[in-house]
Amino acid sequence: MTNVALYFISAAILIGWGVAHMIPTKKVVEAFGAISQDNKRIITMEWIIEGATLIFIGALISVVTIVDRSSTVSRATYLVSIAMLNALSVISLFTGSRVKHLAFKLCPVIFSGSSLLVLLGLCL
């Protein structure tokens, strides 16, 4: 039963961080100052996509855990979620972690930590 808790904790962290990521989108774009409308749209799109991706991964982990956490499809879903979270972690480590704002530095920790929770859930 511990593995179920680990899955749901990971999912809650991901969904929460995804929502928190999307809320300040307008302010983030404004912080770039006088840039072209196209650049504003690109930043907005990318910012929303990362938040939506995190929400999706968290929701997916929750759904497969609720439906049948021991099925082959659920295990595969957990594994690809771990892979995606670690890919996002590496990307964030080499990009966002070099930014002055703390929230950007937290991304690799949150992504890796969430993937570790899912991995622990698989191992227990």
Brief account:
With 124 residues, this protein is mainly α. It has 5 helices and no strands.
Describe the protein's topology.
Blueprint: H1 2-22, H2 25-31, H3 37-68, H4 72-94, H5 102-123
Helix pairs in contact: 1-3, 1-5, 2-3, 3-4, 4-5
Bulk shape: elongated
Low-confidence stretches: none
- Give the radius of gyration: 16 Å
β-sheet strand percentage: under 5%
Describe this entry's structure for a reader.
This protein has five helices and no strands. The termini are close together. With about 120 residues, the chain is mainly alpha-helical. The protein has one domain.
What would the keywords be for this entry?
single chain; 124 residues; mainly alpha
